[in-house]
Amino acid sequence: MKWSRYSTLFESKRNGWLLFNSASRSFLKVEDCELDVVRGIMADPEGYDYSKVPMLYMQLRSLGYLVEDRQDDNLYNIIKMRHLTHLYGGNTLMLTVAITRSCNFDCSYCYEGNRTGKPMSQEVEDKLIRFIKSFKADHLGITWYGGEPLLAFDRILSIDRRIREMGKTYTASMITNGYLLTEEKIAKLNELNINYLQITLDGRKETHDSRRYLKNGDATYDVIISNIDKVLSTDFKGTIHVRVNIDGRNDEEFADVYNTIRLRYPRDFGRRITVYPGFVKGDDHPDASCFFEPKEQGEFISKMVKEHRISPLPIFPQKGAPGCTLTRRNAFVVGPDGELYKCWDDVGLEEKVVGHIDRFNDWNISLLAEGMTGCSYLDSEECRECYYFPICNGGCHRIRQKNLYTDKPHSPCSYFRDNLEELLELHYENKLEMVARMRARQKAQEEAQKAAAVQGEEK
What is the distance between the alpha carbons of residues 393 and 413, in angstroms, rounded to a whole number? Predict the structure, then answer.
């Protein structure tokens, strides 16, 4: 028996000693009277006399703080097995379809700014349908992408109709700037099986309009907000996810967007509409000082919680579904000419094309393999030995792939890595507040019941 390498004991300045295990994600408060006992167990787990603390022993064993000698090593193989099974198993074809590279916006920071705008033709549509039919997948997931996909809405309707005629189960999402969401298009969203609609607002009206404007320079904020109003006034069954691209120039405004949306749509907030930050990173950004590395991301999240009482992203570690389009077997990005990529960021870059929807014999297998396995965190000794390995899916694999070719790499790590203790403290305090509110409600209910009983007796 040994103390798990995934267990950490740390002192919170505000809350005393806290214990966390990244493998089981168990979280405990260590009372002062137990501190020396826990330290003794940590120092000599095999030789410690547990007869005086049987309940603590059972708790530490059941929550993964005390493990068998090879249990931590075995966990690596279990996580790897589950990860690879998810990436290479299943019977779903996932396509991100860049239906056009054209856009009605001329955003100051767009990584697609210098790429030729071109819509998908009827010929390419026909090839795409044949490509989908060639896969024996029972389920199809499509993300409509661009450019601005609503510029090619008729093409989307045509492809959707032909997919439904195949009889496959089918879900869709759309990444749009939101400007062209007319009532006619909104009325078609449910018919298109769209359950996820991403729209971007980059701060207060003045800031947004200075960053995300039409090609003629006109503002866009008011139209987008009006269109969100229209969507939420209908029976749209999906969810709107408002993305705020955060960098060093507008990070202070995230809370303004969050609260604007929360107050504007009080009944729908958290159910039909959410707000989240998209951290700017990548060598194509015009302002290199704007990079948000994981440490800064965690600091930003902590600041939002402490100063604004909002949690834009989880403050307690959660392990989501592993992988992305880059690493999954049956996942591709389709360009408007029918070319195939393995990352959204690569659309329009000829050197990043891995294949084509109407040819299967001349794919760039080397590039395909590099993204899927050549930069996998599962093969990194540093990641394997990392305390955060059980709560990390390897971060952005596009960053990992880029790091293969630079001497100034960006970190793909989780924002918990440099901010775990602070975020756990905030999580613990949130739980305390929830318990306090619940007890206050219970007390108020009990007092109301007593008052009602007294009134009944007096009558």
Answer: 9
